[in-house]
Amino acid sequence: MPTDQVGEPGKKGRWNYHPELPLADKSIFAWPPDPGFLARWFWRNWLSLSERVLLLLVSVAAWYWLYPDLDDARVLAFGWVFQTWIVNMGLLLAVAGSLHYYFYIRCAQGSKLKFDHRDMASGSRSFAFRNQVHDNMFWSLGSGVFFWTAFQVITLWAMANGYLPTTSFADNPIWFLGFFVLVPIWSAFHFYWVHRLLHVPFFYRHVHSLHHRNVNVGPWSGASMHPVEHLLYFTSVMIHLVAASHPLHVIYNLHYQALGAAMTHTGYEDLLIKDRRRLALGTFYHQLHHRFFECNYGNQEMPWDRWFGTFHDGSDEATRMIRERKQRMHAG
Questions:
Q1: Could you tell me the CA-to-CA distances from 143 to 238, 284, 305 in Å, in that order?
Q2: Which of 62, 108, 163, 232 registers the highest number of CB atoms within 10 A of its CB?
Q3: Contact (CB, 8 A) for 55 and 259
Q4: Are 234 and 199 in contact (CB under 8 A)?
Q5: Taking Cα atoms as reference points, which of 227, 49, 19, 34 lies closest to residue 138?
Q6: CA–CA separation, 270 and 115 (whole Å)
Q7: Where are the beta strands (DSSP E) in the chain?
Q8: Which of 26, 15, 7 is nearest to 280 (CA)?
């Protein structure tokens, strides 16, 4: 297992694990396009066990067996709204809770593929209740589930009443299936620009800094945000105002935002079973953002960080460049 020589060698900032550095350009929008890379990307994300496939399966199961019927959504009523909130609360508890239990309570994987060598913080005044996990759970289950449910309820109510363009597998099977592939790509596009807005000094100081308390992340860190950030974060669902969709697309979009955040913030690169990588989880790309803040605002699928000079590839040179950029920003 490689050890870190990035950023602050010889100090407590050293990584416990990192992938091969410097990070490669894995954007699906890289030019000229590489058909082989795109085929492998599609296979890895959609034709094998992946975060996207698992979340789609959860979305289908929840739509058919847990959430209220679309007919019920025609009238805003306490019953089906409360049912939606309960389901969302249960799903986040199940996903983030099981990941936290596996990695941080049972310690089933030890430190293998864990980016940061530190444990979750306790006794720190930086967090509510002086406990990182309790702080993260408070914001995720309180504000996070509230805004997730609010956007889901309003969108499905509008869809049930014919205010939004809709489609089905019978109407257009290619678009119906293709939209599931497009949702994570749209989410990545939306996330980058909302994230850049949140790093404007005013918004960072008053809103986004709450999420960035988590320099060392865990499953509960993903959806731990200020209410204003939750409001902005879940606006990705507004794509359904203009793109013909099905309730399943809406639910998958929101699950990808909420449950996917727990999966990508585990602090581990992969889930190991019998020392074999079975499920990709966190990315070192985003872990670098939590360590150095003003870099890697998006994810590796989007080219924006490379185009706008905010890409940190994990190298010492990139660390120096990012620190110089931060100094210029603070000086300004």
A1: 19, 27, 29
A2: 232
A3: yes
A4: no
A5: 227
A6: 11
A7: 270-273, 276-280
A8: 26
- pLDDT-derived band at 24 (thresholds 50, 70, 90) equals confident
Mean pLDDT, rounded, for 178-206: 97
For 256-298, write each residue's pLDDT tens digit: 999 999 999 999 999 999 999 999 999 999 999 999 999 999 9
pLDDT for the residue numbered 204: 97
Distance CA 114, CA 270 (A): 9
pTM of structure? 0.94
End-to-end CA distance of the chain: give it in Å, rounded. Answer: 41
Q: Which H/E stretch holds residue 176?
A: helix 173-198
DSSP assignment of 84-105 equals HHHHHHHHHHHHHHHHHIIIII
Residues 40-70, buried b or exposed e (16+ Cβ, 10 A)?
eeeeebeeeeebbebbbebbeebbeebbbeb
Residue 257 CA to residue 265 CA, distance in Å, equals 12
Only one residue has tokens 């085929």, namely 39
Handedness of CA 22, 28, 34, 40 (dihedral sign): positive
Distance, in Å, from the CA atom of 125 to the CA atom of 138, rounded to the nearest integer, reads: 15
One-letter amino acid at 305 equals: D
**Amino acid (one-letter) located at 113:** L
Cα 130 off chain centre by:
25
Q: How far apart are CA 315 and CA 322, in angstroms?
A: 11
**119 by DSSP, 3-state: which?**
coil
8 Å CB contact between 262 and 219:
yes
Give me the pLDDT at residue 329, please.
76
Hey, where are the domains in the chain? 65-111+122-282
The span from the CA of 151 to the CA of 172, in Å, is: 25
Query: CA 288 to CA 15: how far, in whole Å?
Result: 10
pLDDT band at 332 (very low <50, low <70, confident <90, very high): low
Mean pLDDT, residues 166-193:
97
